[in-house]
Design brief:
homoserine O-acetyltransferase activity; Rossmann fold; AB_hydrolase_fold; EC 2.3.1.31; eight-stranded mixed beta sheet; Homoserine O-acetyltransferase; alpha/beta; 2 domains; transferase
């Protein structure tokens, strides 16, 4: 069951803006053992939630590699997200009204600094394994740099040390879709929703690739295949529209906008000596995993991580699904984890 952690003191963001308080939605599974050495902290991606059993069910859950029978599994919902943590719909204590457009966005570094309070409240002093893909991996890296002695093992997957110009361009294009929705400037929960649907369509192009669509989305929809040519609908178009509608049923444009900005902010070298020096400070045993067909976080970014994190191991997995392979290829990821982290 999702729980809420409340930090009822002011919280200063990297931007210098100050929140009077904050709260985090989180899930735990299993029990912290007497030695405190069985913690697995899972980091979710942009539109994920704090229950990895729902979106990483092949890795986390009963009978899986990370089973609550053995591990104390923790996952916190990102600040700014739709799924329970402080976000644009939260009440601003100063005004008594929802933040909406005044909600200050968190960097990935701000996020892990918020998680530090949750970690303390849960009585965690050591994390056996930290694992996350995409934006989740970005947060993991930030935390492993902020607290080098906290993690014994880290597994950043399909992620990077700083968000690339290519990735930022994708996110900016998605935000432009939201900005051009005529409802976006309104202060209500449904503002910008049609823009977000279009944004999701752009995002999918970066999450998958040419081959994915060639295999999965060729031809016309079954319902229109026998209609005149000017009434037929391509499967690829139908799929894009469907995915936008699907996200709109479970997410909101404010969160999508803020979290994409947070991803763009990711840069482990900011206000540190350099990116390389920051990565070199990581002391955890590290397994870096990339996806060969990932066009959003290409293999060169994971190879860079493995090159500059001391004694890191690099592994590449094959997947039809591009960047989304980090969510879908859980059997291969499990094999790599067992081989490289000596998991039973």
């Amino acid at each position: 069951m999702t729980e809420i952690f409340k930090h009822q003191q002011s919280f200063t963001l990297e931007s210098g803006k100050v929140l009077p308080e904050l709260h985090l939605a989180y899930n735990t599974f299993g029990t912290l053992n007497a030695a405190g050495d069985n913690v697995v902290w899972v980091f979710h991606a942009l539109t994920g939630n704090s229950n990895p059993m729902e979106w990483w069910h092949g890795l986390v859950g009963e009978g899986c590699l990370f089973t609550p029978e053995k591990y104390y599994i923790v996952c916190a919902n990102m600040p700014g997200s739709h799924y329970g943590s402080i976000n644009a719909f939260s009440t601003n204590p100063t005004t008594g009204k929802p933040y909406y457009h005044t909600f200050p966005w968190f960097t990935t570094r701000d996020m892990i600094r918020a998680y530090q309070f949750l970690k303390q409240a849960l009585g965690i002093t050591k994390i056996h394994i930290g694992i996350g893909g995409s934006m989740g991996g970005q947060q993991l890296l930030e935390w492993a740099i902020e607290e080098p002695n906290l993690f014994e093992n880290i597994v950043p997957i399909a992620t990077n040390a700083f968000h690339s110009a290519w990735g930022i361009a994708f996110n900016a294009s998605q935000r432009m879709c939201i900005e051009h929705d005529p409802t976006w400037k309104e202060d209500n929960d449904h503002a910008g929703m049609n823009g977000m649907k279009a944004a999701r369509s752009i995002a999918l192009l970066s999450y998958r690739n040419h081959n994915t669509y060639g295999v999965k989305q060729t031809g016309f929809t079954q319902q229109t295949a026998n209609l005149p040519i000017d009434e037929q609908v391509f499967n690829a178009e139908s799929y894009q529209r469907y995915q936008g509608e699907k996200l709109a049923k479970r997410f909101n444009a404010f969160s999508y906008y803020a979290l994409s900005k947070a991803m763009d902010s990711h840069h482990v070298g900011r206000n540190r000596a350099s990116v390389e020096a920051a990565l070199a400070s990581i002391t955890a045993k590290t397994l870096v995993i990339g996806v060969t067909t990932d066009i959003l976080f290409p293999l060169s970014e994971q190879q860079f991580l493995a090159q500059h994190i001391p004694n890191a191991t690099f592994a590449a997995i094959e997947s039809l699904y591009g960047h989304d392979g980090f969510l879908l290829e859980f059997e291969i990821i499990e094999q790599l984890l067992r081989q490289n982290l000596n998991l039973e």
